[in-house]
Task: structure prediction
Amino acid sequence: MKLRGIGVGSMMYGLGYGFARPDFSTTDIELAPDGTVTIWNGASELGQGLQTLLCQLVAEELGIPYEDTFIITADTGRTPDAGPVSASRSTYVQGNSALKACRDLKKPMAELAGELLKTDPDQLIFKKGLVQDQNEPSRSISFTNLAGGMHQRGRRVRGSGYHSITTGDVDKETSQGDAYATYAWASQLAEVEVDTETGQVTVLRLASATDAGKAINPKMVEGQIEGGAVQGLGFALMEDMKIEQGEFKNAKLSTYLIPTAADVPMVEPLIVEVYDPTGPYGAKGVAEPATIPTAPTIFNAIANALGQRVRFTPATPEKMLKLLGKLEEKEEQITIEDMPYPEP
Amino acid sequence: MTILNETLQEEELKIQTPSISRKDEYESVGKSVLRKDSVPKVTGKAIYTGDLHMPGMLFGKVLLSTQAHALIKSIDVSAAAAVPGVKAVLTSRDIPGENAFGIAIPDQQVLAETKVRYIGEPVAIVAAEDIFAAEQAISQIQVEYEPLPAVFSPFDALKPGAPAVHAKGNILYHTKVRKGNIERGFDEAAIIVENIYRTSGQDHAPIEPEAGFAWIDAEGVLNVFSGTQYAFRDRRQIAIALNLPMNRVRVANMTMGGGFGRKDDVTAEILVALLAWKTGRPVRLVYSRHEAMMSQTHRHPTYTRVRTGANKEGKLTAMEGVIYGDTGAYASLGLFVIKKMALHLGGPYYYPNYKSDSFSVYTNNPIFGAFRGFGVLQAAVSHEGQIDELAEKLGMDPIEFRLRNCLRPGLSFSTGQLMTNACGIATTLERLQDYLVENGLSIELHPEVSA
Amino acid sequence: MDENNLIKMELTVNGEAVSMIVKGGRRLLDFLRDDLHLTGTKEGCGEGECGSCTVHLDGQSVLACLTPMERAIGCSVLTIEGVGSPTNLHPVQAALLDEGGVQCGMCTPGMVMSALDLLERNPDPTIEEIIEGISGNLCRCTGYKKIIYGIQQAAQELQAASPAGTVKESVE
Ligand code: FES
Ligand code: FES
Result:
């Protein structure tokens, strides 16, 4: 018999490290005489799109074309330390440091532009390749020409931005306190079909409403959501790390199975944008929020289909048949007696 | 562009344009621009660590422990060193600096010295003229182990008299979260659900297995290239192990084939640096898939007992939980993963009363560390199971029940921290409600049978 | 190195004649990566599970990690380096970029080679056929959706560019 069900699951995730762990980033930026810029940031491109994201932020902040940015990342011989790439912090922390580097560079640029345009540097905005007086639009200079002028006059053409979200620590005994700089949010919905004869669970539909704050690059955000949810699906249903007497028994891709294209639905990313005033252009990270709720979402859909709850991972066909009472459970189960709640 | 001339000022001022306001739409932000790194990747031109090559390059290989917990009585490398083409066979004795590293606390050995703590722990390394000689040398290394009693679950590790994985005991960290009055919270509950949840380990399986490449440049700087999530921490740890000033070590990240948390730890970096330092030659060390899976970190397996109460109106009144996280043989980030899990065990909901304890426990299993989700993923299996079950028992729509209880600006998290306006959980749930309508779906319609 | 195990590799790689005396008894993957320095072909598992080492041997998709190098003697090998260049991308490559199907990129060369093989056999594949065509290629980053759509987009472009129906008939 094949039964279908729909379930939902939600999550929150404290962004960054918390607990007084160093949580900072530095970005350097240099203006060339032709108006192109080079960005140095010590964070790593893992495939998540950090380089692209930082370039987009810089292009926006300086009002120049994205194509005019070039970035060098994660090299202790060249880049400033930007902290690790983890905890979904890159957009938030490294992104903010890139914006600050731009603002640092814009200061001397605005000074020169103010001199040239005979206007108040504070009234200048950088947009669409121009540096322009926002009150008197006729007073403007192209970013490119201003860049040349900066070099010709020997002005400072390098900017640096440091951003830290290092928090205080929470109380040792109660963990009360401000734990994280901000939080990320997501809710997912899955539709599954469970074959009660074979125990096979097929995910027919997986939609993820993920709060990106502001999607700096929507396609990359979608990519994070789609890939993250599929990793969560693997965790929920397939990836069975068999450890016996300390030995990882199936440490090969032929025996430790991760999802193939044939195992997954077309994940539907539903980008939600709840502006975060502390993030760059309101943005925050999405990498982990995309993965976190998937397994319980699938399990809730299974519960909706079967009326029986999965409280373990992974829900492989074999373990599903045990849950359905069609296969004998031989493993010793942990019981409530094994896990007393510690005293207050 | 010829802009550098004396009449620049005139030139500079020539361009006049229409007004641009601060508020108009973004130019780059919000656009799906072409990724900076994608053209090299799609044409096969991007250079990953394992693609690096230099004249005179040696091939590195690692010998991994076959024992979960054992004393090393002796290591005989003479036969390995005699294999033609072998340039170095190194053990813990050959480490110039400290034989200790670790992402949070340095409890890990670069090469096992007197004791191994998991199957897959690096014991010796080899550099040779080709990979076949390196493989042959590895097979010739004789390690004499004296097996010790071992522990393979956090429960066994916490039993009185359990074998100690580390001298300081098997509890790495105990996190306590205490908010409100848990007894009163459960007194106010009309319904309480209590369950045990068990999550398994997970391998990150980045399609690029871990690798490192090292060489010494003309200035004597030790250069290490790898796929790493934090080059600066690697540099520090390499310098300490090799007893070098930190500014004489350079670590650079190559194009990287995924990390997902695992490459936040040192992977091949110190080992390949040692080989290059000892031989004076460039060395490339690429883990096989099997070696990577055996030696590197994974997602923490966890056991959670939790009870959650709600009143008749469907408002959560209390949550109490206890978590045992298996951090394996070394700490890696196991302290923070399991700590974060305790804070997030309730999920994105408001609980006036909240109590949780988590124990991060050493065992002789492989190392468990950072992996996308970082403890919160394991917590979600529990809290979403609990919330869904409560909604079902109260006869409420699961999304409505979540909306009724989710955090909102001004409500507090388990740590008492107040949520700001950037609290987006309700918006994501409402988006799912819209999605159901858009797709003509409803959650109550099930189960539906389609034999 | 065992002097007796030297062999002569004479073959065509990416349209160019290659003749080399190298150590034999290795995998085609080693020959391509270590001897020819064509490192666009990746090794993700070494046991035929991930597809990242996919190349074409006489027009057929093969896994270079399971193919003895000697099998390629006298054959024509196509690797990712022979598919398109940064300034002249193959439509499959361009479509993968356009759709956002490239993240870490480790699976990408193998995906491109599998997609080319699929489109040669079946120029107008359904989504299911595309999924089937790349189901031997693991990707840990993207969740596959954007890769699948990228291949579909490329197929449509290639179809539009080629005279209608000509290729398809020969397959069916
Ligand atoms: S490396 Fe050949 S299939 Fe994985
Ligand atoms: S893009 Fe990373 S494995 Fe496919």
User: Anything to note?
Assistant: The pocket of FE2/S2 (inorganic) cluster (ligand 2) is lined by residues A 47; B 207, 258; C 102-107, 139-142 (CB under 6 Å).
